[in-house]
Design brief:
Two copies of one chain form a homodimer.
Chain A (H helix, E strand, L loop, with lengths): L10 H11 L5 E5 L12 E2 L9 E2 L3 E4 L13 E3 L2 E3 L11 E4 L3 E3 L5 E3 L9 E2 L10 E3 L7 H9 L4 E5 L3 E7 L10 H11 L3 E8 L3 H9 L5 E5 L10 H8 E6 L3 E2 L5 E5 L4 E5 L3 H19 L9 E6 L4 E2 L5 E8 L5 E3 L3 H4 L2 H5 L2 E5 L5 E2 L4 E6 L3
Parallel strand pairs in A: 13-14, 13-15, 15-19, 17-22
Antiparallel strand pairs in A: 1-12, 2-11, 3-10, 4-6, 4-7, 5-9, 8-9, 16-18, 18-19, 20-26, 21-25, 22-23, 22-24, 24-26
Helix pairs in contact in A: 1-6, 3-6, 4-5
């Protein structure tokens, strides 16, 4: 592979480092009502069959199928039958259900049946819902509404889930007046999207000792130190991390985001140094911090955007040696075209785009008509 | 179009009814930190330019571009320069930035420059980030992390968003012992997924008067009445709604879910009658209740699953006159195949599936090799 530019580490090297350092957290037990969007830590198995007994699949009359033999509109049979609601247990001796509107009661307490039924017709058989030896849901599943529903049906009221990663945000105090903290609110919503919890957000003075001290505090599974990641006079984040623990990587061939750094606190928690400028902060988060948080929480590692292979209508230029993020707009005919880049309009490039392409550092870009993999924003 | 079976209303008719009755709610103002995943009610425009002034795009030395003319490695120029951090305002008289590692200070307080720069090089121009006449984000946008970030950058601290729909769940008390409420927890997570809030969840006796009374209570934007929707002896939900307000539609050609009903309270709030059996409850929610909640909350109306056109490897059979939901599994080669249906294994069919196909009532299904539109579960 072509080397990254200027002695920067490649995105791939940095991702491998993240994958080696960020390990899935322990399990905890939560009530079913709090389990949505959590990751199941272990397989859920059930001991008892679902349904617990043979049950009516619809509203109707429970009958003995044998007795319906020969029934037809020309030969209506008057049979003993018991009205049942969908989901109700079949009464003893009954093994099929005539739908409510296919039968009617006679005056003698019986029911007139005009169809022959086979045993099991319109019946949910005991145990039929569990296909594979009691396995209800596999460990590692991100729990959605249907999983919550099947657990409730199986009377599973507590679930073992992977702990939510606790994320500490340390903002290196802004060195200039009038600057607003656009990174804090954005990071908070990114972290929540990825299943993490912001356990603390502190702003500290932009000095090596203050930053080192902030990095030494415990209580979180990962620390994001925002700002001061460059090589300028008041950029103290990298030396502070080196002093407080380990600075493993500083400077990655990613644009925007090249001043990002990776390392660990002395207690071993991963630390991501995120650049202060919002667009660089976003992409350093997306490629590294977000992946680490998703790993800690047991989620799938890929970016949480749907991806799709489409055609680009215009040439896309990229620098060899840098992984570049190119914002794109969707065209009505299903292709995409590049829009105003991050280098020109900062974070607004992401706001104006429908999605983005990640152009690897080995590529100079794409000619018009090339197939590209695009990640699309849902929101 | 072919008529629905048995005098049932078509899914299309029911959807049109929902779309006519469920209207987008009013706006409310929320702090930026609470705005993620909310729907913006109005356009956000900014009065002041972003960036507020010409600013350094990267860490470096601010210079006057004119003075760099002629600079090269063979002709290094010693120029007056001021070190700036990325994002910092350009000092007066400076109009370009030399990257930090392309220059170095000499001993005389100046900086040695070896590249000629044009005015604006490595500068974020005042106002450059806002492309279209102050428009930051369009009304109707579902706010994601990048929108939160751009608002923070523009110092927008309160946002006008569409109110979250308040949903009242009324469970018709189960008529049989030992039955568990699998619908309540599942509905709660579906409602939250669609941006709603469960304002109240009550379980009431399964009698017409008790249900009517429960439907008359106010305080919510929509009511979901669960269970008792069939035509059996203890199915009182439809008559209760007719008594308490308006029963507009009862019985829809949807499988699972055909006993679903639609109507309004006397105060005009939409009511969806959801069948009790979990699979039927799920699909009646997905096609009607969920759509109503998404409409109330200003969200896109489509099902919140990504869809994709794929090939089916096996024949899929469906009944004419019924819209049927067919669970499918993804095959490694990108096609799908039908898996155990809802009619056989109930809600477990959704748990075991990777996604589903909605087969319209005009279709008898698909032969192997047909192109079908599949909705894929993310979780």
């Amino acid at each position: 592979m072509r080397p990254s530019r200027d002695g920067l580490s490649s995105v791939e090297t940095a991702v491998s480092w993240i994958d080696a350092v960020a390990r899935r957290l322990d399990r905890e037990s939560v009530p079913l009502l709090e389990a949505a969007r959590r990751v199941l830590a272990d397989d859920i198995r059930v001991q008892r069959p679902i349904p617990a007994c043979d049950a009516a699949a619809l509203d109707g009359f429970a009958v003995s199928a044998d007795e319906t033999i020969g029934a037809s509109t020309y030969n209506p049979l008057h049979l003993p039958a018991i009205e049942v609601a969908a989901g109700a247990a079949l009464p003893a001796g009954m093994n099929a259900v005539v739908p409510l509107d296919h039968a009617e009661p006679d005056d003698a307490g019986r029911v007139i049946v005009v169809d022959a039924l086979a045993p099991g017709d319109n019946v949910d058989r005991q145990g039929a819902s569990i296909i594979s030896e009691g396995l209800l849901i596999s460990g590692g599943t991100l729990l959605g509404p249907r999983h919550i529903g099947i657990c409730a049906a199986a009377a599973v009221t507590q679930l073992p889930v992977v702990r939510r990663p606790r994320v500490r945000i340390v903002s290196a105090g802004t060195p200039r007046a009038g600057a607003t903290d656009s990174d804090g609110p954005m990071l908070r919503s990114l972290i929540e999207r990825d299943g993490g919890i912001v356990s603390e957000h502190v702003t500290v003075e932009r000095s090596r000792s203050a930053l080192s001290q902030a990095l030494a505090a415990g209580g979180s599974h990962i620390v994001l130190l925002v700002g001061g990641t460059g090589k300028g006079r008041d950029d103290e984040s990298a030396p502070a991390l080196a002093a407080a623990g380990e600075l493993a990587i500083h400077g990655i061939a990613l644009r925007p985001g090249e001043t990002v750094g990776l390392g660990r606190t002395s207690a071993g928690a991963p630390v991501v140094l995120l650049p202060g400028p919002p667009a660089a902060c976003l992409w350093a988060y997306e490629l590294f911090a977000g992946r680490a948080i998703r790993r800690l929480g047991g989620r799938v590692l890929e970016l949480p955007h749907r991806s799709s292979v489409v055609t680009t209508t215009r040439k896309i230029v990229s620098s060899i040696g840098m992984t570049e993020i190119c914002p794109v707009a969707c065209r009505p005919e299903g292709s995409v075209e590049p829009v105003a880049p991050f280098a020109e309009i900062g974070l607004m490039a992401a706001v104006g785009a429908d999605g983005f392409i990640i152009i690897p550092q080995t590529s100079e870009g794409y000619p018009p008509g090339a197939s590209v993999n695009v990640y699309l924003y849902d929101c």
